[in-house]
Amino acid sequence: MANATYLQAISMALREEMRRDPAVFLLGEDIGVFGGAFKITQGFLEEFGPDRVIDTPISESGFVGAACAAATAGMRPVVEFQFIDFIACAFDQIVNYAAKCYYRWGIQVPVVFRGPAGGGIHAGPYHSQNPEAWFAHTPGLKVVLPSTATDAKGLLTAAIRDNNPVIYLENKFLYRHQREEVPVGEHITPIGVAALRTIGRDLSIISYGAMVHHSVQAARKLAGEGASVEVLDLRSLVPLDRAAVLRSVKKTSRALIVHEANITAGFGAEVAALIAQEAFDYLDAPVKRVASLDLPVPFSPPLEQAMLPSVDKILTAARELLAY
Amino acid sequence: MATKKSMTRSALPDYPAEITVDPRTLEYSPEQLVRFYDVMRLTRTFEEKLAALYRQGKMLGAVYLGTGQEAISIGCASLLEEGDLFSTVSRNLSAWFYRGVKPEHVLARWFGKDVPPSSGRELGLFLADMDRYGLAPFHNGSMASWIPSGAGYALTFKLRKKPNIYLAFTGDGATSPGDFYEGMNFAAIHKLPLVVIAEMNYYAYSTPVEKQMPVENIADRAAAFNIYSEIAYGNDLFSVIAAARRGIDHARNGGGPALIEFKTFRRRGHGEHDDGGYVPAEFRKFWELRDPIDMYRRWLLERAGIDVSRLAQCDSDAIAEVEAAVEYAEAAPFPDPATVSDRLFAPSSCDPGPDTGETVFEPLQQIAIPVLTSGQEDRGGGHF
């Protein structure tokens, strides 16, 4: 084990996979000489050279299109978006090319799209978004969101080895704030397998990404109030670990879904629908969601906090469900 | 309306209504010369059949034809070498046939039948099969999406130190989307072996080139990328081959991308639902007199000494092959609806096994939650 931040764990996975497989190469803005806007690829240019660490012009659709094509030709590109918000510029290549090639012709597209998502650090409307639902809605894409350094490494390793396009969403607050003992050497977190972060009997909080931390914090507080709360970290939205969701809800009979992306048509709606369809008879309370308001992410700290979910908002919703 | 203005802008060029090259200066055997004709004729016959079937209500969806542009596709396809890849748009069926795709296969796909590699999941017009034909995938979201793709394939050749090129067919209308610039820019920066064959057929659907481009020629756009470019007559097979060969040689020899523009004309509408009524009569007439197949046939008979009986054989073979393709496609089975969900994701080495009945418990080692001042601490030289 090595003590590493979430950001260092991402670097570890990239470096180990590049050493293991010569087909893996990186494209992105300022990832070479500068080592990436967040320094994830610091030192990579020196170790792997400019053919495998490609500084691209500012043209997301262009280099994403190039990466997708290289993937169909047997390469394993990993594309860095400087901020995940800019993935919108490459939407067409991802949803119309990468997502559909295998279904259309049986041609595999083993490409990873990764980049920093999430707010809470005062980065404003274009540097704070959580776009997972755009991609979860597109058949043919896998979508993963690590909440810990260990999973950041394990899910990225699995994503690079996956034969399909994978949207790998990093949380930029966790980059330097989440630190833990991370396995050294090969570590794989299979895509499509959820993990329990706390075990409980009275309420299931189903979450992913940065909000897992808020949810666990809330669960600890509720434990002090005598409630036994289970936190399930989905880790992967597509494919979704439906069995884990249903198992937890059938046990606790109460479900609260928490995500940072805004609420309307967010992925939580899909989870709520799954529970309503498959576990209705087990429920003792309505399914609730805590998510961001349906707004762009505002810049000023008090506005941003008002917009984003918080431990307090989770506690309020959880207490209502527990008292129902 | 055949105004003077549009005629000037669309520059009715001084292209002859005949192929002028001296056959003695060419290196082609009579067999090869006949083969060019054979594929041209097969394509024209096949497309005429598609149009007829469309009018009879027998086609699923739309039909898009490349009538009048066959010399470009065939000439360029004839220059591809082992390991090269290419992509086509809806006017390049003759390139497929030249590369060996079977008409029966195309038609069965067009009928929605269960034939590989799409098994009913994609239109007849969209085929990708790199292993058999060198035909790479493209999509029709952005109408220039295949230019970044081409850069990606060309990048792969460079990374693998292969002597190959990527050839992307495209059209005038498809040089307007941003993807055209992003892909060309990337390819030019890295001097990638990308050859773009841009067919100037003067109309994007109904919109004339004057309303698409502030420059007269597609090749004028090459200046922005500092790359090799050329303009040539697209209805003369040998003019096509000569210009395309210079571009391909340039790219294959490490010179970077090439943009080769061919002047031609889309004889049919955008699709068969479109009567092309917006094309000035004089302009249409000019190009109809320069039909690439008619010109090539005359040249074969009058200049190259090919016997008319050989060409007549090609003509009747084409009819027979197309009739057989219709029979094959009609008889081929539809895909089984039970297979609709098959093949969404490719299997992977890290795929999880079946659900174990228990969810793993992996507690958080450390909780991290932003506070109001988050984002103001040490960032290790990076953002945030």
Broad structural category of chain B: alpha/beta
Structural class of chain A: alpha/beta
- Count of discrete alpha- or pi-helical segments spanning 4 or more residues of chain A: 13
> What is the element string of chain B, with H for helices and E for strands?
HHHEHHHHEHEEEEHEHHHE
Q: Count the E strands of chain A.
A: 14
Roughly how much helix do the residues of chain B carry, as a percent range? 25-40%
* Spatial shape of chain A: globular
**Which segments of chain A are poorly predicted (pLDDT under 50) over 5 or more consecutive residues?**
none
Shape of chain B: globular
Could you report the average pLDDT of chain B, rounded to the nearest whole number?
A: 94
What does this 3D model show about the protein?
Chain A has 2 domains: 2-182, 3-Layer(aba) Sandwich (Rossmann fold); 195-323, 3-Layer(aba) Sandwich (Rossmann fold), CATH 3.40.50. Chain A has 13 helices and 14 strands. Chain A has helices at residues 6-20, 44-48, 60-72, 91-98, 101-105, 132-136, 149-161, 174-177, 211-224, 242-252, 267-278, 301-307, 311-323, and strands spanning 2-5, 24-28, 53-55, 76-80, 112-117, 142-144, 166-171, 179-182, 195-198, 203-207, 229-233, 236-238, 255-262, 288-292. In chain A, α1 packs parallel to α7, α3 (60-72) packs parallel to α4 (91-98) and α9 packs across α13 (311-323). The relative contact order of chain A is 0.12. With 384 residues, chain B is α/β, with parallel strands linked by helices. Chain B has a single domain (8-339), classed as Thiamin diphosphate (ThDP)-binding fold, Pyr/PP domains (Rossmann fold), CATH 3.40.50. Chain B is 38% helix and 9% strand. Chain B contains 12 helices and 8 strands. Chain B has helices at residues 4-9, 30-55, 70-77, 93-99, 103-110, 130-133, 146-159, 178-189, 237-252, 281-288, 292-302, 308-331; strands at residues 85-87, 166-171, 194-200, 203-204, 207-208, 228-233, 258-263, 360-361. In chain B, α2 packs antiparallel against α11, α3 (70-77) packs parallel to α4 (93-99) and α5 runs parallel beside α12. The relative contact order of chain B is 0.16. Residues 1-9 of chain B have low confidence and may be disordered. Classes of the chains: A alpha/beta (324), B alpha/beta (384).
